[in-house]
């Protein structure tokens, strides 16, 4: 038996329950991980609320973690008992231990702690694909990035700076503005007190941005489209305020591009997953990116963690420890 946070029905944070769960031996192609730290992500709240449908209930929430391999299923060649490993795309994370497919984990280099790995695998690999694959960010790039002081946001600030790009970040308080600036965000807009479309126009001298990264959804649509230059790319990658409503394609003003990417699709093969993680680890090892674990909760306090995330109280990354 292991302690795990499960949902038996979708709903508010109160549906998160600490259960004792039977853990069978790892199956063929799987390993068991004793988890040392567990990542918290906004996607966990979508799965809990039912915005994103899970295949079956009850379910152990959580997509991300880091720990040690403690048992092996048949046919696993790449890992051994005792290996330090991490992952960021597999449901079942909120637990002391779990089984997981070996082709969805990566070896964890010693320069990266379990806590850092659990805080960054999902969010860091997201920034990597957003900046290197969805759009090729470089020194000429001018981007708008919403929620710049969040988990994904603070990694984005540092990665954008490392690439030499101009990043305009939006945040929901003066404290968050300070944090984004300190992590390398070039221009910061407090979108609770300032009109971000007008500010983007001012900052870009009316030209608009090459790309807008929008994880807010309902509250920033369609204004995010007004921040783009002709032929610019709108990357809608999250729904912190609720989903983007269905819209008429003429709102793309005759030349804009729109995409709705996901980390799962960009790391669908083991090769893609490893290439992405290797680039992230290299940036962390070279100290171009440092991970802010600003909230740490005991596993049993998952409800409080979800309330803090949805209440916009968190900054940087958050983890659970079992
Ligand atoms: P964050 O730490 O960024 O938390 C979300 C932030 O969104 C809040 O802190 C808040 O910042 C902002 N926000 C704006 N409006 C609301 C609202 N109505 N309710 C709650 N928050 C709001 O979370 P993550 O770093 O975990 O994820 C950031 C976003 O990226 C999420 O939307 C997530 O779903 C998405 N994502 C998408 C992935 C993909 O592949 N498609 C992968 C990973 C993440 P502020 O107060 O500054 O506005």
Task: Characterize the structure shown.
By secondary structure, the protein is an alpha/beta fold. The protein folds into two domains: 2-120 and 292-321, Quinone Oxidoreductase, Chain A, domain 1; 139-260, Rossmann fold (3-Layer(aba) Sandwich). Helix content is 27%, strand content 27%. It is built from eight helices and 16 strands. The protein has helices at 42-49, 114-134, 151-162, 174-182, 196-203, 263-266, 270-285, 302-310; strands spanning 2-7, 16-21, 30-40, 59-60, 65-72, 84-87, 97-101, 106-107, 142-145, 166-171, 187-190, 209-214, 228-236, 257-259, 293-298, 317-321. Strands 3, 5, 6, 7, 8, 15 and 16 form a seven-stranded mixed sheet that branches. Helix 2 (114-134) packs across helix 7 (270-285).
Poorly predicted ranges = none
Tally of separate helices: 8
Shape: globular
User: Largest sheet, described in full?
Assistant: 7 strands, mixed
Structural class determined from secondary elements:
alpha/beta
CATH A-level architecture of the largest domain: Alpha-Beta Complex
Order of helices and strands: EEEHEEEEEHEHEHEHEEEHHEHE
Number of domains: 2
Q: Say how many strands there are.
A: 16
In short:
The chain has 322 residues and is of the alpha/beta class.
């Amino acid at each position: 038996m292991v302690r795990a946070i499960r949902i038996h029905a979708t709903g508010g944070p109160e549906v998160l329950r600490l259960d004792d769960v039977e853990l069978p031996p790892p199956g063929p192609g799987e390993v068991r991980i004793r988890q040392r730290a567990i990542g918290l992500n906004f996607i966990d709240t979508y799965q809990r609320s039912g915005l994103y449908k899970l295949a079956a209930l009850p379910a152990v929430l959580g997509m991300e973690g880091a720990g040690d391999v403690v048992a092996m299923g048949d046919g696993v060649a790449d890992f051994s008992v005792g290996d330090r490993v991490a992952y960021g795309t597999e449901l079942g994370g909120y637990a002391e231990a779990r089984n997981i497919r070996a082709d969805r984990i990566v070896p964890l280099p010693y320069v990266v702690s379990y806590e850092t790995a659990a805080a960054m695998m999902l969010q860091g690999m997201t920034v990597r694909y957003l900046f290197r694959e969805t759009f090729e960010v470089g020194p000429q790039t001018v981007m708008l990035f919403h929620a710049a002081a969040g988990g994904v946001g603070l990694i984005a600030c540092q990665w954008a700076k490392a690439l030499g790009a101009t990043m305009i970040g939006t945040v929901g308080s003066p404290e968050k503005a300070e944090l984004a600036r300190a992590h390398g965000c070039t221009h910061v807009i407090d979108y609770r007190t300032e009109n971000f479309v007008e500010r983007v126009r001012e900052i870009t001298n009316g030209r608009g941005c090459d790309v807008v990264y929008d994880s807010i959804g309902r509250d920033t649509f369609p204004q995010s489209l007004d921040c783009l230059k002709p032929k610019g790319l709108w990357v809608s990658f999250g729904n912190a305020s609720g989903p983007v409503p269905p819209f008429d394609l003429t709102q793309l003003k005759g030349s804009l591009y729109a995409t709705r990417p996901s980390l799962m699709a960009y790391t669908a093969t083991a090769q893609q997953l490893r290439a992405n993680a290797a680039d992230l680890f290299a940036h962390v090892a070279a100290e171009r990116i440092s991970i802010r674990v600003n909230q740490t909760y005991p596993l049993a306090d998952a409800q409080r963690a979800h309330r803090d995330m949805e209440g916009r109280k968190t900054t940087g990354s958050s983890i659970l420890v079992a």
